[in-house]
Amino acid sequence: MSSITDGTGRVEARPASERRSLPMAARLALLALAAAAPLLFAGDYQLRFLAEILIIGTAVLSLDLLVGFGGLVSLGHAVFFGGAAYAAAIAAQTLGADVVVMLAVGIATGMAAALLMGVVVMRTIALFFLILSLIVGQIVWEVVFHWREVTGGADGLRGFPVLTLHTGFATIPLNNGVALYLAALVLALVAFLAARSFVDAPIGRALLGTRERQLRMSALGYSIPRIRLMALLASGAIAGAAGALYPFVNQYVGPNAVHWTMSAMMIIMLVIGGVGSLYGAFIGAAIYLGIQTYVSSYTDRWQLIVGLVFVLTVMIMPKGVVAGLKAAFGRRNDAEGRS
């Protein structure tokens, strides 16, 4: 502990962890440096991989709005993400692949899918919500898998136009690792700020209330289904925006993007990173995709490694990697302050 004197001469004690925390300007500078570092040291493949992490992490972030703040665990969340990916891939064939148009298509598709799911499941909770979201997701997967003329069926879709950005003066192609990484980085930042604004707004506080005290919120006159539907729409919009960029990173989108296993994968990422932390979604996505991409080159049992990481996270850091590391560093700073 340390002591400081305020303007009245009184002494106030503050923990060492608070005294040693970095100012906001320093945090932003470190964040900007971390974001710019890959541009200096990573190649095209690594930048595309980082772009995929940011895009998937943004989708996991949207899931965190439901799970972490609404207590609504969904196994149909891939419908928002994968449905938007398919919509963007199909629209690009006729409308062109302007990034603004693709994002608009993705957001509209994600919100439409969220509205459809909300009509079905918004009056349920817990296990019933989980099962109904799974059923809705599997219905969408069946449509995607069998509608070969539009979605490509089991083969998926390939060969999209180059993603572009129209500035009014020139058209910038976003067909290399640097451009795709920057586009995904901007998307992730905007999505994080939007999610944070939603959580801090009255609707976000009400959503937390429905998770903690549903009966009390109903007694106070709040419409629980309406609050959950608003959360679904916000989550669908963010997931849809992420899905709109997804096909252009790997130049492919397949039916697995809307399958329930994709939703389960997002839940695993969210638990590893930390439920309710928002930015933990990107940490969880980086850990999962890193194991999937690099460990799988050495062994086919990479999913076993993911399972071990998941179990260890739940046992050692039940609130996720982000909260676990913050707690560990906090204890270390307190110990240094006392020494």
Automatic annotation (TrEMBL):
Molecular function via GO: branched-chain amino acid transmembrane transporter activity
Record keyword Membrane present: yes
Keywords tagged on the record: Cell membrane, Membrane, Transmembrane, Transmembrane helix
UniProt xrefs under Pfam families: BPD_transp_2
Annotated GO CC locations: plasma membrane
Primary location group: membrane
Subcellular location: Cell membrane
Bilayer-crossing regions: 24-42, 75-92, 99-119, 125-145, 180-208, 229-249, 261-290, 302-322
Membrane topology (UniProt): Multi-pass membrane protein
Keyword Electron transport in record: no
Signal peptide: none
Protein's name in the database: Amino acid/amide ABC transporter membrane protein 2, HAAT family
Protein species of origin: Bosea lupini
